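Checklist before submission:
- one chain only
- standard amino acids only
- sequence pasted in full

Submission:
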Amino acid sequence: MPDLNNTVFPVIPLRDVVVFPQMVQALFVSRPKSIAALEQALLRDDRLVVLVAQKDPETEEPKVGDMYQIGTLAEVMQMLKLPDGTVKALVEGSSRVSIDLITDDQNVFNAKITGQEETTDEELSTKTLVRVTVEKFEQFVKTTKKINPESLLAVSGIGQPGRLADIIATYLGLDLNERQHCLEIIDSTQRLEYVSHLLSRELELAELEQQIHDRVRFNLEKTQREYYLREKLRIIQDELNSDGEQTGEIAEYKQKIAKAKITGIALDKAQKELQRLEKMMPQSAEAGVIRTYLDTLVSLPWGKRSREVINLDRAEKILEEKHYGLNKVKERILEYLAVRKLSKQPSGTILCLVGPPGVGKTSLVKSIASAMNREFARISLGGVNDEAEIRGHRRTYIGSMPGRIIQSLKQVGTKNPVILLDEIEKMTRNYMGDPTAAMLEVLDPDQNENFTDHYLDVPFSLREVVFVATANSLDNVPRPLYDRLEILRISGYTEEEKLAIAEQHIVPKTLKKHGLTEKQLKISDQAIRKIIQEYTREAGVRSLERNIAAICRKVASEIVRDKTTTVRVMPNMLSKYLGPAKIQRDLEVKGPQIGVVTGLAWTEMGGETLAVEVNTMPGKGKLQLTGQLGDVMKESAQAAFSYIRSHASQFGIKSDFQDNFDIHIHIPEGATPKDGPSAGIALTIALISAMTKRPVRASLAMTGEITLRGNILGIGGLKEKVLAAIRAGIKTVIYPRANEKDLQEIPDYVHKQLDMIPVGHLDEVLNIAFKDKTKSTRSGAGRNTSRQTARQATKRSALSSR
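Returned file contents:
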């Protein structure tokens, strides 16, 4: 052994490897510092290097503090460079060493070390420990059968406790900390005791593993034996009486198939699957798949129907009790029921209720089912992007199941339920197929009589099923699917309708749900109206219901705490129960503004007001559009700008203004996408106002598409937009004359609250929007005439709607 004092040796950090003295180990080295350490060791006369384990094997570039303090001094016997740059080295451990100091010289680690002299106890107890450990190791080798028996011969001849402990430690599957601890124990007797303890633990684990293996093998042999006996028994039964009475599982399935009244192709399929099951091993995976398939097949309502009862008076009563307003929708539903009663044949009409959330589409479909005395099932199609969700998965896949249509029929247990296809527009296509294409077969009366689910693989008639779809918008519905639907549009509720719905439906239902009575809690009409105006802004009544539920919860808490027995909620008490108002109507108090116009928009959530802001500034004629505007709205802004440029002199605008000024059009709430042409006149008026510095009337909103000639075209969703104007505190609404026919859908009280003015050309809008006299492209007489015509048209429309 060379003198270790004042000698510096190269160091190789090892990942998840501990090299013991007297042990030959092959190392694969790839880190530059480790390769440099090997090369430096080969240049030494003694060819020695220090091998030390890393504390964390995952560390790619270890530092001085990442290594243990005890390592092994080893001799490099061979070194071979591989083609991939890795170096294979064969090293032999020499002795344990304590590392006094490690230095990082950038290219290689070097260390000053102190040799650790091993102490040995020659007492009888030590010799006994050696013998016991060797016996344990012999038993371990026989149990695991993973170690070469020749290794046992080598171990048996070792009488030194320290060396014996090191060799046995290399054969055990120890983790890094246990191997390092074994290296750090200098006393050979203590080290052997530690290794003997670890050997006992590994021996117990090996015996447990062997027991589990024997048990699994016994179960396999038992299963094979049962299969052999069952096959033998089946052959004997066939020989004795092939037509004899069958018992057990097969007979039970035959009874279920007969009871389910399965006919035709489905019956043939069921019998074939039953024959396959009869010949299979009960424990086989395929037998479990067939059982699941047969259970699904016999649970379907092949011949079970609800007894349909159509009484128009009863149906009308149900609709009136459960729904307020919606007269056109109710009328169409009654017509649908009348046709079904007279024709006595399934109708090919698929109703689709389209409207914003919370207006009662789902509850209307439930009322249809109740009026027809049929079962009701709901299928939510939101987010469905796989054709298999509709048609089912083929049985070749693990965990396959029928599609949602068949599952709904299985759930309700009848062949003629009312099935609600909820949010039909939210189906999307992807690489797994197009669910809207699968829905075509479901909704086509000429095809759904033989609807074939991929899981069932047999036809099942959907002809008697009544399908009713709902949607918030039809923009994303493919045209072929759209053609199969009869659209019934449901507009948002007016304030008066919401008040009536709250009094007749929401408040009684919410009180009952929270265990309250009308004597304990009374909410005044003024309070409900204030909730509608200042705490909700929606087309439906869901937020209204949530706010009333919040009041009920707080009142219930007060009653349980014995603070009160009855509560009457007045408008001034809402801040106590609901907090400060969430909707602030500040449009009336702002007064006329320059470059700011209120537009009206339609969304899936109902109508909304839309602020259009325009600023002008010195520049070079740049037109900037912000607020996340869609292509159609950008084109509307361009059309408005072109119209103003072509009539600049008539508006009192200099002809070269586009060369000297930049124009910025912004529509607030930039996180919300906006699109559509109906903001055309709002954009035009805002531009004119900003360029001429004339303020636009307050409490005025407008909607309509503008052409390059200044004509105003019709728009959609007038009722929703008018209701949004009322919610925002608007007093006057300008709308296209082409939409006068839509006024009959607007309630009478709306006409009383709003001054609704129809217009056909931008000149008419200018006369209304600006408080001062605006010079237009037409004569003053023309302006007066158009104004009078607008007023008269409004009165005629209001009278006709009444």
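Reviewer check: The two ends are 115 Å apart (CA to CA).
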